[in-house]
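Input/output pair, single chain:
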Amino acid sequence: MSTQSIQCGQSKCFSAARLIVMTIAMACAHSHAAESVRPAALGDYPNRYIELTIPFAPGGGVDLFGRTVAQLLNDQKLVSKPIQVVNKPGAGGSLGMTLMVQRKGDPYNLLGIAIHAVVTPLTLGIGYSYKDMTPIAKVFSEYQMMVVRAESPIKSLKDVEAALKKDPGSLSFGGASLGNADHIAVALFANAIGVDPTKINYIPYSGGESNPAIIGGHVSVGMGGLDLITHVESGRMRVLAISSPKRLGSRFQKLPTFVEQGYDVINENWRGLFGPPEMPPAVVQYWRDALAKMVQSPGWKAELEKNQWVNTFEADGFRAALDRDNQMYSTMLKQLGLLKQ
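Output:
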């Protein structure tokens, strides 16, 4: 469906010689600069295991992301100490965020999360959000697919637009929970065609329960992640559009986007890593460097292909992207009557 750069600061306690080294390093390429200042800034970090908190139960999409990243970083020896994944489920990810905020400045704790870091505080009104943590990097993204069952009389987005303009409640849309990326994508489409999104008949489902509802014709139109491609390839569903900014590759290259069909609908559900507030800048850079190497590895590229994940790795711009997400979701959730903040 990304953030002010967190730069390594220059401590006043550096000697004149260290300042000269740092100045020369900063004039070089970014990666070379990071390597030059790291020994002085990091000391022996890390000198013990790192805990990666996943604020959801084992087995879900965020858990898969966290465990995959931890395994690859460990196996490829991109970090010098093991990463241990710990699940802390509760309240749409808010428990994990709360724990992370309480670990102020701790360089041995990370949080793996998705768009929930933006959405959950807005829908539940909790006190913490991405703004209270240290963004490290967005690692990959997923996008939403608008689909219909193979036998549906709906053949295109134009058919959906015509039906909704005639009667906004005439079609039912099945997807994940209210306020979720699926729901927001439908609302964005409604706005794009000049229809009040609160009039849309959106039916929320848990887990993958929307899939049989789509295939069985219990809803007119379905929304879901890129994993729906298996149902498309089996001939049980047809794709009307994908919410990516441009066409995706591989198995998705023949499938059109909303944008190319003239509808201003772009929405992504990313996965990313955060640290506690006031995480040392050199530690942030350590993790960004490790992740940047990981996403170039054959092992990671194989995971992208296997899981239908899209490579959108971003570190320096992560915070700015989060701010844009927050603005868009705040606007849409308020319009839908779901904003609690």
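The domain at 16-142+269-335 is CATH 3.40.190.150 (D-Maltodextrin-Binding Protein; domain 2). Confidence is low (pLDDT under 50) at residues 1-40.
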